[in-house]
Amino acid sequence: MAVQINPSILSADFARLADEARAVQGADWLHVDVMDNHFVPNLTLGVPIVESLARATDTPLDCHLMMTDPDRWAPQYVEAGAGSVTFHAEAAAAPVRLAREIRAKGARASMALKPATPIEPYEDLLPELDMLLIMTVEPGFGGQAFLDIMLPKIRRTRELISKHGLELWLQVDGGVSTATIERCAEAGADVFVAGSAVYGAEDPAAAVRALRTQAEEATGTAGWACAH
């Protein structure tokens, strides 16, 4: 599974979003954090901004919906131009139906788990998904410190993916940087959301390349990757 680096525009300059999207040449996806001030204590952006971003960049959009009632709202983000839409397990009323609807509209369906939410109850849902997101901070704010205690959960999730023979991407989001990305890759992640580590750098595109190199090297020696 190829390493993917998804810069998070939550750490970008919101007054220059089109320029900031173009500043991360070489990124696989542009990660868009949608917060509703209900599911998480912050308010960011919505459908009109996603529509504008989709027109402004050729990099596909990876929308992470931190909101209540994603069953109602998620399909609108596909229509707005998102190539991947992530809803939270804790917020979705009917996650299988929602994942199928997202896929039917032409996007990749992804489900996110907050740090305290275990993966095991969702094992049977994994075949319905294209990606699973393990939050490595509490969702709601950028710039938080990485939670090392999430590494065993990443490993267990990778084991479940392998157990069922799934082509499921495993994404991590929160505190991903040059200091933490190798541990995430060794544990089983292959898609990495990085905000401050990219947009806080002098050269965001170079930061993307550096993170990719680190993750690829760590993946190359990881037991889970060698087993494939």
UniProtKB/TrEMBL annotation:
Cofactor binding remark: Binds 1 divalent metal cation per subunit.
Q: What is this protein called?
A: Ribulose-phosphate 3-epimerase
Query: Needs which cofactor?
Result: Zn(2+); Co(2+); Mn(2+); a divalent metal cation
Q: What class of enzyme is it?
A: isomerase
Free-text function comment from the UniProt entry: Catalyzes the reversible epimerization of D-ribulose 5-phosphate to D-xylulose 5-phosphate.
Which residue spans traverse the membrane? none
A Pfam family annotated for this chain is: Ribul_P_3_epim
